[in-house]
Amino acid sequence: MTEIVLFSGNANPALAQKISQKLGVPLGDATVSRFSDGETRVELQVNIRGRDVFIVQPTCAPVNEHLMEAMVIVDACRRASAKTITLVAPYFGYARQERKSASRTPITAKLVAEIMEVAGVTRLLTLELHNSAIQGFFNIPVDHLFVKPVISEYFKNLHGNVIVVSPDAGGVERARAMAKQLRCSLAIIDKRRDTPNECEVMNIIGDVKGKFCLIIDDIVDTGGSLIKSTEALIENGASEVHAAITHPVLSGTAVQRIAGSKLQQLVVTDSIPLSLEARKCNKIKQITVAGLLSEAILRIHNQDSISSLFL
Ligand code: R5P
């Protein structure tokens, strides 16, 4: 079998380095820089003819920049006759616009899927998509990983009065899977605006009184949903609130807001690198998905099952 070739863009070199160490495969020599006007400049310094190429590049902020950079690397690989080109994008940017939420709005997740295919991606390896149905926007294979094994390993010593909480109806499937894994019950936050102009009401389905609440979500961006959910749980008698959220987008003043909130701990993964401010925040703990991704890369290369990773 041919050897794996691993490249990294500039979105998350630390994660690419960890994957490289776990696989025992050095990062391929490549120049990924900018021309003076800002255009992406790529030059691969290794022969990849007939090889399985894996490019580690989450399309995180600045999303347009990192997406385009990934596509230029993919184009270089295609023109250099790679056999397969797998984009390892644990965070898939633009996923939240996955349907028309109002008239005359785009479906960016579909647009990005088409851009990736046209550029030459032959497989996408991703993690906790905002909506699993995004897989159907691709005509190439999509390996969609779940963070469940990594999060449940981190919380394996939790005992007692624990309840997993989905912060909205859309996240119930994800939270239910985690509750099953941690062998605890599930609560759901039902957000409602009864009349337009009236502020959002958060009804909690499930009994959280006196319980250790663990909020499970895919993305923490401004932190708004997380903080409001925390407040609603505390108002309803939760003893403490923690959260495990896969992708730390953490834009704007999110870190400051989380630091000043009643949330005790936010566990995130390294699908997206943390800012210095987030790294300094003692409520935020980052755990790595490098092991999960490298195992998936190995299985793809060896044509083994990926789903058995989650059994
Ligand atoms: C929404 O459906 C997502 O699952 C997240 O809850 C949302 O993207 C979080 O955004 P923010 O942190 O800005 O409230």
What does this structure look like?
α1 (about 15-25) crosses α9 (about 290-300). The chain contains 9 helices and 14 strands. It is globular. The chain is of the alpha/beta class and about 300 residues long. The protein has a 7-stranded mixed beta sheet with strand order 10-9-8-11-12-13-14, with helices on both faces. The protein has helices at about 15-25, 65-80, 110-120, 150-155, 170-180, 225-235, 255-260, 275-280, 290-300; strands at about 5-10, 30-35, 40-45, 50-55, 85-90, 125, 140-145, 160-165, 185-190, 200-205, 210-220, 240-250, 265-270, 285. The protein has 2 domains: about 5-145 and about 290-310, 3-Layer(aba) Sandwich (Rossmann fold), CATH 3.40.50.2020; about 150-285, Rossmann fold. The protein binds ribose-5-phosphate.
The CATH architecture name of the largest domain reads 3-Layer(aba) Sandwich
In N-to-C order, the SSE pattern is EHEEEHEHEEHEHEEEHEHEHEH
**Number of β-strand runs:** 14
Low-confidence stretches: none
Helices and strands: which structural class?
Answer: alpha/beta
* Count of separate DSSP helical elements: 9
Indicate the CATH topology of the largest domain.
Rossmann fold
The largest beta-sheet arranges its strands as 10-9-8-11-12-13-14
What is the beta-strand fraction? 25-35%
Task: Give the averaged pLDDT, no decimals.
Answer: 96
